[in-house]
């Protein structure tokens, strides 16, 4: 027995609504068990839902990798906020803000894979830069080192210049290799 298109669409919407309610209920249950506020759990869940919606748009509708980047980014932020709301991650947003750079780097990987069907330097190099930058800023944000970021820049600026040169060198090598492959 075949369903007509309107019934099929309605069945899909009911399925999606049921799935969302199950996830939201599970999130609230975990939040209640740990004593987290409902608003913080709802905020985290909101980011995950936006990310899932953008992933659907990227994969089914537009087939564009930019939507997949934002989908991955929002899902990572949602999980971060959820773990923070559950007090699994016990630090404030003022300390954890460098993780946004790490999340941006991690979100570039699936976007690049989706766009090219393989791992390409055009996405991997910026992803690594974002991840490394986020890790460096996290070290200073959590006061792991005994000096400030300003003192680090004033003392170690030549290594930053050398790293920028290395990055440009890697980018130029990747561009030449791509030009050599063109017919």
Low-pLDDT parts are none
Q: What coarse outline follows from CA principal-axis ratios?
A: flat
Order of helices and strands: HHHHHHH
**Strand segment count:** 0
Domain count: the total is: 2
Strand content: under 5%
User: How much is the radius of gyration in Å?
Assistant: 21 Å
Q: What share of residues is helical?
A: over 70%
Report how far the terminal alpha carbons are from each other. 52 Å
Number of helices: 7
Q: How is the biggest beta sheet arranged? A: none
Given helix and strand content, the structural type is mainly alpha
Q: Mean of the pLDDT scores? A: 79
Describe the structure in your own words.
By secondary structure, the chain is mostly helical. It folds into 2 domains: 21-146, no CATH class; 148-183. The chain contains 7 helices and no strands. α1 runs antiparallel to α2 (38-62) and α6 (121-141) runs antiparallel to α7.
């Amino acid at each position: 027995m075949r369903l007509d298109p309107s019934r099929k669409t309605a069945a899909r919407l009911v399925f999606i609504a049921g799935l969302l309610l199950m996830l939201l209920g599970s999130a609230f249950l975990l939040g209640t068990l740990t004593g987290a506020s409902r608003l913080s759990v709802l905020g985290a869940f909101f980011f995950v839902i936006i990310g899932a919606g953008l992933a659907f748009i990227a994969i089914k509708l537009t087939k564009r990798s930019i939507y997949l980047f934002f989908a991955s980014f929002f899902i990572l932020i949602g999980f971060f906020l959820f773990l923070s709301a559950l007090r699994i991650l016990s630090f404030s947003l003022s300390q954890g803000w460098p993780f946004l750079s790490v999340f941006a780097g991690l979100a570039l990987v699936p976007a690049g894979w989706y766009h090219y069907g393989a791992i390409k330097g055009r996405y991997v190099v910026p992803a690594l830069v974002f991840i490394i930058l986020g890790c460096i800023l996290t070290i200073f944000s959590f006061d792991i080192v005994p000096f400030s970021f300003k003192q680090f820049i004033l003392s170690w600026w030549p290594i930053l210049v050398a790293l920028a040169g290395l990055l440009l060198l890697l980018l130029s090598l990747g561009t030449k290799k791509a030009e050599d492959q063109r017919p």
